[in-house]
Amino acid sequence: MTTQADTHTPLVVRTRDELRDAQMRWALAGPLDGAADDGPGRRVVVMTMGALHEGHLELVRTARTEAGANGQVVVTIFVNPLQFGQGEDLDRYPRDLEGDVAKLAGVGADVVFAPTPDVVYPDGDPVVRVSAGYVGEVLEGEHRPGHLDGVLTVVLKLMHLVRPDVALFGEKDAQQLLAVRRMVRDLEVPVEVVGVPTVRESDGLALSSRNAYLTGDERERALTLSRALRAGSDAAEQGATGVINAAREVLDGADGVVVDYLALVDPATVQAVPDDFSGRALLLVAARVGTTRLIDNQAVEVLPQR
Questions:
Q1: Are 162 and 257 in a shared domain?
Q2: Residue 53 annotated as lining a ligand binding site
Q3: 160 counts as catalytic
Q4: Out of 82, 132, 178, 236, which residue is the most buried by the measure of CB atoms under 10 Å away?
Q5: pLDDT digits over 249-287, tens only?
């Protein structure tokens, strides 16, 4: 257990037995000296694939607050093969467990669960998997078939292994967050799912582990995504069609940016909103810059048209 002021390195566990031992020792430890005796606190999990950046660390800081002084924060680091399609970057996805653990020192993580694939999938690829349903068939699902099924399968397995009270996810992966929330609700998983706002560089680029793939020129071109989202948001008074047109104009004017999709959707369903829509919507974009695929989104309050 830790407080936000502590700088100790979290305990790293690699197996199911080691994870259970860490959980049992926490449950038996009782409240920290000087902390309010409010019981054992809550266990909060942040699920990652490693290659941690400031966005991940902000999730962990938020987790520390959610857990409280007597709670336990678990960070999982696992590059899940089920969510990578053929020809995607599974083999070259950045892996640096030692560096990741060093970054987690002092931000509130108590335990790092870093299993190998044979720990998560002891019988090989699972025969029974979670289906994302229609949520996994549009947008990301259309361009990465089976991706969200793989995400939900590993998220559910990790929830069973870690047994958290709360699970935190970044809002940058908006469709993933919606799918996880829907799975938890539909399958009666006793976990509270909390979204944490996207962390950006000072120039607006959304933080992503895949940003490490970008060259200097590609990084400059990648800013087109956040610029398009801002342009769309600024056109909110022109209605849903105006939002899409303003964002598309920025994307169409950029060299070296290949758009997979641009969509204005209902944040509760990820379904495209009608032209006469008004209210809160999500503007989503996915594009390739060089060989790197990036996603981003922004909430937009679409104004009614007279």
A1: no
A2: yes
A3: no
A4: 132
A5: 999 999 999 999 999 999 999 999 999 999 999 999 999
